[in-house]
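Quick start: read one record
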Amino acid sequence: MINKKRKLSDLFYNNRFLLVFSVVAAIVIWIVVAVEFSPETKVTIKNVPIKVMSTGAKGSTLEPFGAENLTVDVTIVGKRYIVEDDAIINDIEAVANSGYINNAGIQKLTVDVGSVSTRPQYEIVSYTVNEVEVLFDYYVENQVPVVPEISVDGNIAADGYFADEFMPVPNNVTVYGPKTEVDYISSVNAIASVDGEFTKSTGVSAGMSIVTSNGSAPKYAKIKSTTDEMETGNVYVNIPVYKEHEAKTTVSFTDVPASYRDKYPFSYTVEPETAVFGFSGEESEEVSVATVSFNNIEFDKNGEYKTTVKFDGNQGVVIKDELTGMAGAKEFVITFKKDDFTVKEISLPSLENPYHLEYTGTDKTFVYEVIGCSGSEKVTVNGPEADVVRITENDLMLDFSGVSKDSLGKISVPVVLNGKYKNCWLTYKGEEAMVSVNIKEE
């Protein structure tokens, strides 16, 4: 078989190849001519960012504010395929050089526009901004309260209900920016409108507005976002609403002797006996307005102990303020009266009367001497009269549980009653009776 080698020149005798080659060559020649001999065109590049260049005085902490929003429109002339390319904006640089800034205040800076490339294939013919004003100041942050400004159509709560104060989340925010603005910001208002007549707690997304003490509107100060809600420019405001119900007022007790957990050794009254409360859940017929420690009850010579407490809410229960019609606070007078028990004072050991006390609450053997007591030389014994009259100083004990001596060997030890008197307890002006003890040997 004979192989015939074909020469490149033979292809030009092929009509089909010649047709394709002619079309491709024509397109290439047209592109070259169009690029090389195309007319120049003028284009305006919009919103070129202006960079504020500041060397700053040595050691200065002055910063520019508002510079991130500065732009300039730049008009250039060049080949169409160059100047109409979207990437051309990246080759244009606008700079406002501030030089050395020594004092806070608004500075006028000259704008220069040039090309990033060393040999640009276009000419900058004009630009719209020759000068900009920039505030130079010290950066500061400050915590300010959020003040709800919620306008309500009608009453906030429906009949049979009442509301508490609006509660923004968070109730304080951080504002930041130039010192000359931030120093005058007094609060941030949370502004919204709602339809009222609520029968349960709800909430609303409120817009934030900076409030200043001098009445000026800050231009550069901003609010730091700490929640997803604040990322949208809003803050969430809770609107607590409670079901109102009149209930009897009672008292809860702590430190109750074991034998009196079901029946107290005295009677008490609360004034007023009833009040209108607000409930976030199920209503109750009784509400405890105070928690009183048995150790704090000290009767006077008439057998009474009176105290005044303020109730402003507890675990989903609030009290209705008669003046505002909203949740508030109210004072109650609690009077305790002795029934079948009495009180008696017993002297504590001291340097003048250093009698020995038994000890409890430890497996260790202590040899000690009493060197003083806290504040008074007497402790009050409380309980049923039949028990109290039998208690003497020999029934007082030192409780060494959980105490340790200091570097000088001294410790303060609580005084307790002998365990056989479970119906009685000790008080010293509402506090635990203590004696100072010097450990001589362990």
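The chain has a mean pLDDT of 83.
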